[in-house]
Amino acid sequence: MTLIKARRWPMQIGQRSFLQIAAVSGGLLLAACGGPRQATAPAAEPATPVIAAPPPVTLTMPADVPGEPPRRPESRDTLGKTAAEMRVLFGAPGLLRREPPSEIWQYTAPAFGQGDKRASGCVLIFVLYPENEAANTDSQAVLRVQHAQSLPRRRGDPVGDADCVEALLKVPPTRVAPGS
Fold it and tell me: Which of 42, 83, 113, 165 would give a disulfide with 118, using CB separation of 3.0 to 4.6 Å?
């Protein structure tokens, strides 16, 4: 009989301490919620924020060289663009992969072109890194395109870099005037 009491003794202490902890924490919770309320001043009308329109974002192409066809936009023209500029130029990426401190953005174009020049589609890949090394730890760092590449959707299919960029570009490129 003594043996049974010895086994029940720790359980009774555990139950008692659990009940004490529950009662104390319940009392603290009620005390925190039931404190006197202080009157607050009515909130002032929020001022209407003035938002400046961002400058237009475009891919700037070099001036045309006399006697040569105009150069078309290519993926390398995006090097140095910020993440915000890329969203304006191409929209939201179809696939975004974060590999700190970098981000990899992928855009996929369906089949494009006509006739014999019809391509099965392409994939544009951009790798963005923070502007400087100190920003690697900052979650608000400005990311810039450091690598750009176009690939065909199916292995072995020919696809031009300029064709791929034109198929995905949301904003038409602008040309620098000769002599500028």
Answer: 113
Q: How does strand 143-152 pair with strand 174-175?
A: unpaired
Helices of type H across the chain: 2-33, 83-90, 161-168
Residue 7 lies in a domain: no
Secondary structure class of 109 (helix, strand, coil):
strand
Nearest to 127 by CA among 152, 153, 155, 95: 95
Helix/strand/coil for 51: coil
The helix (run of H) or strand (run of E) holding residue 144 is strand 143-152
With H, G, I as helix, E, B as strand and everything else as coil, classify residue 105: strand
In-domain check, residue 45: no
- pLDDT tens for 116-157 read 667 778 999 999 999 876 555 556 789 999 999 999 988 888
Work out whether strand 122-130 and strand 143-152 pair parallel, antiparallel, or are unpaired: antiparallel
Tell me the residue range of the domain where 87 lies: 60-64+71-175
Within 13 Å and on the Cβ side, how many CA atoms surround 68? 7
Burial class (CB in 10 A: 0-12, 13-18, 19+), 28: exposed
Residue with tokens 């990426």: 93
Q: What's the total number of domains in the chain?
A: 1
